[in-house]
Design a protein that fits this description.
Blueprint (H helix, E strand, L loop, with lengths): L3 H11 L11 E4 L5 E10 L5 E7 L5 E7 L12 E4 L5 E8 L5 E7 L4 E8 L12 E6 L3 E8 L5 E7 L8 E7 L12 E4 L6 E4 L5 E6 L5 E7 L12 E5 L6 E8 L5 E7 L4 E7 L12 E2 L7 E7 L5 E7 L1 E7 L11 E2 L5 E9 L5 E9 L2 E12 L12 E8 L6 E5 L5 E7 L8 E7 L25 E5 L7 E7 L3 E9 L4 E10 L2 E7 L12 E9 L2 E9 L2
Antiparallel strand pairs: 1-32, 2-3, 3-4, 4-5, 6-7, 7-8, 8-9, 10-11, 11-12, 12-13, 14-15, 15-16, 16-17, 18-19, 19-20, 20-21, 22-23, 23-24, 24-25, 26-27, 27-28, 28-29, 30-31, 31-32, 33-34, 34-37, 35-36, 35-38, 38-39
Length: 554
């Protein structure tokens, strides 16, 4: 049985901490069998917590969900809520917010024999539609849900890959459900295209949706518009918005609106290892050339993600071994001569990003361990749109438990308080089966379970005007503290040891707008050399305090 040799030894250690954030993450579900987090399988709950959805084969494959609150408590039982555990297999769910504090999820279902089902769940974990879900489509051939969104009229739109015409062709179909779970379009769905792809949805402003996908038979990226009544705007296969060869190599498509009824797209191309962006208008016209434009001239690009800024400009972040950021104007002109590098660790395996209400970018990925490249740990980073990072260039360690890259998939959402909540698949107990773990990273750069604070001030808060970095870390001799100020003010610096005793301080530094740097030479206030160990460096300015950990090695 799963984790037999581990649970007995860990049980007494884990029980007292269960129900709150922990170092290396809190277990969302770690029961027997495999748990596979859904693609983009986490959404914020609006109160610092999140809803997480996954496929679960503790018995056969079923759909489960969990509500974790802002303190890390699992509100829907020790191993989650069964959204659908009907006979047969249910797997590969997708999720979207329902606009009333809950969510809607849709999945592939094999109860009789190949179907798509959906369910709506409220904040308290109540199933709002029939207990086993509502049938979206049923055929003998495969149907795989690709995306689900809430439309502008508050109904829900689901798109799936459909093999009902196989072997002649595979197709893309779409359906709209009312808030009560009733079908609003043709009972068998609306045929988008006879081209399989991996479609993504973008709601329009009238209750319909744009569908984007990388063509399987069509040469490039393709677009279709389905209006509020479920009618196609253009003949099949749709509008080609980025032409190119080897169409199957277009992957990781990200979509956002442009504020003018059109859309921004970003994707990576497996064949040439580059990432591209394209802007399209509501009529399907490509605005940045026939094939779009390359984001940057690096070596490899993966997981580009786009976020609309003010006006019609767009921000793009991606993983090019390191986290990168660029901003493009509406006509595709980059703001920075060279993209901003936001991390110093080598990342791989996956890359997920989100934007919070303050317009800051939240990023989550894995770090390749130099001494063991077959294992990864997890890190997060936060940055302004101008590319200034909030935390050290090495980011925040979300979990330093070694896991295998083939088992990982992780996603991030904003926590509504300047930080983030992340969730991921994790094989820490064995290399065959995966569990679901989650972690919160606070605005001050602490991961859940880290109780380090600036003493006497409570949990430190670091606003956008006060970025703080400690380097090198660990250090031997002198450590530098770099920070950014938006206005002139006095800064006090204090160093504490791990037991909370004040070791050294410098008060009244006259900070200036822009970059600033202070240093500590590893001595106490009497001029004596401090011993090796963990120290907390605290900086205090007007109405805020920031703290970072550093290690002195002799």
């Amino acid at each position: 049985m799963k984790k037999t040799f581990f649970l007995l030894g860990l049980l007494m250690l884990s029980l007292p901490l269960y129900g709150q954030w922990q170092l290396n993450g809190a277990a969302v579900c770690d029961t027997v069998g495999r748990q596979l987090i859904a693609a983009n399988g986490i959404i914020g709950d609006g109160a610092g917590g999140a809803f997480i959805v996954w496929g679960d084969n503790r018995d056969d494959w079923d759909i489960f969900a969990q509500h974790v609150d802002s303190s890390g408590r699992m509100l829907w039982g020790r191993q989650g809520l069964a959204v659908c555990d009907y006979q047969g297999d249910q797997f590969a769910p997708r999720i979207t917010a329902d606009g009333e504090g809950g969510f809607v999820t849709a999945w592939h279902d094999e109860r009789s024999p190949r179907e798509v089902y959906a369910q709506r769940v409220d904040r308290q974990g109540r199933l709002l539609w029939p207990v086993d879900g509502v049938e979206v489509i049923k055929y003998t051939q495969f149907q795989g849900v690709e995306d689900v969104v809430m439309a502008a009229d508050s109904a829900f739109i689901i798109v799936w890959r459909d093999d009902r015409f196989f072997p002649d062709s595979s197709a893309i179909f779409i359906q709209k459900l009312s808030r009560n779970g009733k079908k609003l379009w043709a009972s068998d769905g609306v045929r988008v295209s006879d081209d399989p792809g991996s479609p993504r949805l973008l709601p329009d402003d009238r209750g319909g949706a744009f569908v984007f996908w990388a063509g399987g038979y069509v040469d490039g990226l393709v677009m279709q518009h389905i209006n509020r009544e479920g009618k196609r705007a253009w003949d099949m296969p749709g509008k080609i918005v980025s032409a190119g060869n080897a169409a199957w190599n277009w992957t990781n498509l990200s979509v956002t609106g442009d504020g003018r009824g059109g859309a921004w797209l970003a994707w990576d191309h497996y064949h040439d290892e580059k990432a591209y962006i394209q802007r399209v208008d509501s009529m399907g016209n490509a605005l940045l050339g026939e094939s779009g434009i390359v984001i940057d001239e690096g070596e490899t690009f993966f997981w580009p993600q786009v976020f609309r800024l003010s006006g019609d400009s767009v921000l793009v972040v991606w993983d090019d071994t390191y986290f990168n950021l660029q901003i493009f104007s509406g006509d595709g002109i980059p703001r920075f001569a060279k993209s901003k590098v936001l991390s110093s660790f080598k990342s791989a395996g996956f890359f997920s990003a989100a934007m919070d209400n303050a317009g800051h970018v939240l990023m989550f990925s894995a770090e390749i361990l130099r001494y063991n490249p077959s294992q990864y740990i997890l890190r997060a980073q936060k940055a302004t749109t101008n590319g200034r990072i909030f935390w050290d260039s090495s980011g925040v360690v979300v979990s330093d438990v070694r896991i295998s890259p083939s088992k990982m998939r992780g996603y991030v959402v904003a926590d509504s308080a300047g930080g983030m909540v992340v969730a991921w698949g994790d094989n820490r107990y064995n290399n065959i089966e995966t569990d679901i773990f989650s972690q919160r990273v606070y605005a001050d750069g602490r991961a859940g379970g880290d109780t380090t604070t600036a003493l006497g001030t409570g949990r430190p808060q670091i606003p956008a005007s006060f970025d703080m970095k400690v380097f090198p870390n660990p250090f031997n001799g002198r450590v530098h503290i770099g920070f950014w100020l938006e206005k002139r003010q006095k800064i006090d610096m204090k160093v504490y040891d791990s037991s909370g005793r004040l070791v050294w301080e410098q008060n009244g530094y006259q900070g200036r707008p822009g970059k600033n740097r202070l240093a500590w030479d590893g001595r106490n206030s009497r001029g004596e050399t401090a011993g090796s160990g963990l120290y907390i460096v605290s900086l205090s300015g007007e109405r805020f305090t920031g703290a970072r950990k550093t290690v002195l090695l002799k």
